[in-house]
Amino acid sequence: MTEEIFEYAPAPESRSTVSIRPSYDLFVDGEFVEAKSDERIVTINPADEEPLSEVAVASEADVDRAFTAARRAFERVWSPLPGAERGKYLFRIARIIQERARELAVLESLDNGKPIKETRDVDLPLVAAHFFYHAGWADKLAHAGLGPSPRPLGVAAQVIPWNFPLLMLAWKVAPALATGNTVVLKPAETTPLTALAFAEICQEAGLPPGVVNIVTGAGDTGRAVVAHPDADKVAFTGSTEVGREIARAVAGTGRRLSLELGGKGANIVYDDAAIDQAVEGIVSGIFFNQGHVCCAGSRLLVQESIAEELLAKLRARIERLRLGDPLDKNTDIGAINSAAQLARIRELVAVGEAEGVSGWSPACLIPERGFWFPPTVFTGVTQAHRVAREEIFGPVLSVLTFRTPEEAVAKANNTPYGLSAGVWTEKGSRMLWTASRLRAGVVWSNTFNMFDPASPFGGYKESGYGREGGRHGLEAYLG
Amino acid sequence: MPDTVPGSLRAYLHGLPGVDEVGVHRRAADLATRSIKTTAKRRAIDLAIRMVDLTTLEGADTPGKVRALAGKAMRPDPADPTTPAVAALCVYPDMVPVAAQALSGSGVGLASVATGFPAGRTSPEVKLADTRMAVAAGATEIDMVIDRGAFLSGDYRKVFDEIAAVKEACGETHLKVILETGELVSYDNVRRASWLAMHAGADFIKTSTGKVTPAATLPVTLVMLEAVRDYLAATGRRVGVKPAGGIRTTKDAMRYLVLVKEVAGESWLDPAWFRLGASTLLNDLLMQRTKLNTGHYAGPDYYTID
């Protein structure tokens, strides 16, 4: 490699703002309590595979204890509390999150592997925004269009994924608390640390004990949480496979369920699109958060007449992505969250290659330790290829072409999923024509992966049901 | 020499891909978060100094003022002889003889604004005479303004022909074409004007006169950098870019260099292909340079005012 004229020097964010305890217990009834079993999970930094801490594994008995605390808090404290008072707690939590934003961003990058640029500029601002937004709703629920006096459901069982650990917690906890419910939440086994930091924030905010309970663990703990007989509501974000299992477990119990599952989002680029910005949108659509995004634009549908030009620009742009240390402020692509996820990505990419589609990655140095996968583009993909159908959940883009708007819409909808889509055109009428025909919960117009607490988010078909965020999201927690 | 544009200019320019404003702002904001530290900062500061077109364009300019600024252009930091000279001094045409004498033999370029700067509201004959006078007096670079009125009324041919004529009048002298993006307003217009100017023979495209607000911005410069990158790919000819006006701090300058590196590419990171039109920027670059070398800031009185 020739020496660059203006090579960025390392610009690592300091770790000194973060203090990670060697070991964490469960957060139940307002305090950290020892789990009944001695089993522990070690959580590691995926960028260097160094252990960060170990957390307790909650057994059924521990989960039971958490539900007891949540039920008591619901009945005695939280649901009788006037909305304006609940709102004050949420505002307080939001402000503490803002005050501790730097620390939480670093902690999230360490535990998850995502670049500090994203935790600092996307995750944490959105986390705070979700609490502020729902704090505002707490005393205005009568005006949400859900009847004159909507009532909370009770105790919500919530299980969240590892791709946006703290943000998914905010999406679950903020609306539940604003509407007067209490929660038992299980963070993902590979990314429990920011949820445990959130537990400290609940203490700092003086939140009444039992309103928020956080139980760590893996699949068994998750099953115990969602199947607990005292749950009035189950909310899950994660894979479609697990979502199905939960739907089966909840079926017939009368409990309310919302699921936010997988996706295979189509990003449609018409020949009259603003090409340079479309390239940016394609890049943020699939490489944002290493592609660990359920609403990622993992299928690029480009009009055949501009495919070559667009792909040339896309490759040139991808070559500029900087992969490496997640704590470096100039890193665009961080580490894959776990060895298991890396294996899954590799497996599907191998399937693509075996099926004869051609893969391309830029020349980039892959760090020796940790879990990494270079940004990859598959061209010549058709609807019949598995890489066009299955969710890869990694930095892998499948490129398909189309000839007419009808064909674009037909291909975009030809998936069992229906979470997100993007449309790129400078022509307003074509934008509206396309968007109204796409069967996806979110359709982005000339942008991608933009989120706002006021905007409802959720899926069609196998991408789940129920909405999170906005007025619609409140409905999931009110009866 | 101007190259040929197929078909009607209007059809050609309006056939260029559109620019999405929200997307451009997002990309520029994203690149502005790049963190430039230590060795990278040191290199970037020296590069930025070498890219400065040190400018004085005031009604109150006098030979004394121009000579003083020429001294600064050649020796930006008298206390530190390792400091590189700036790229060029930029003055009004009537000040070119004074500047030429002051800069003689220094290797620092001499840019003259021309063509009825800054509004360009004069006859084609006067614009060409303005240009020829500056060239004859020793300007090595001409910074012309386009006829924004003609551009906004859709008379692209007039704008094209005027640039081509000025280019001819320049001969071997480098031509920078000022688009005055603050008056073109939309990014679609900026992209069209960029391509129009490049096809008409511009060696550089420049954002602003500095007399209109807004002057240079990161998103406008980003759109122009995309244009020169794509023009090189389409024609094989490389054109330079010069943001001018409103670039005051080292942090601003770093952000422009990041934009050049990540949008047009490393090969544009050269005073031959990228310039910063500025006046107060230079002292801030010098202060930051001293800070990096000595570990402390010197007071403003340690830097010359000119």
What does this structure look like?
The complex is a heterodimer of chains A (479) and B (306). By secondary structure, chain A is an alpha/beta fold. Chain A contains 15 helices and 18 strands. Chain A has helices at residues 60-78, 83-99, 101-112, 116-137, 165-178, 193-204, 219-226, 240-250, 275-287, 307-318, 339-354, 386-389, 405-413, 428-437, 470-475; strands spanning 23-24, 26-28, 31-33, 40-44, 51-56, 155-159, 182-186, 212-214, 233-237, 256-260, 266-269, 299-303, 358-360, 376-379, 396-402, 420-424, 442-445, 464-465. In chain A, the strands form four sheets. Chain A has a seven-stranded mixed β-sheet, sandwiched between helices. In chain A, strands 8-7-6-9-10-18 form a six-stranded mixed β-sheet, with helices on both faces. In chain A, α9 packs across α10 (307-318). The model of chain A has no long low-confidence stretch (mean pLDDT 97). An eight-stranded parallel β-sheet of chain B has the order 7-6-5-4-3-2-1-8. The longest helix of chain B has 18 residues, at 218-235. Chains A and B meet through α9 of A and α2, α3 and α12 of B.
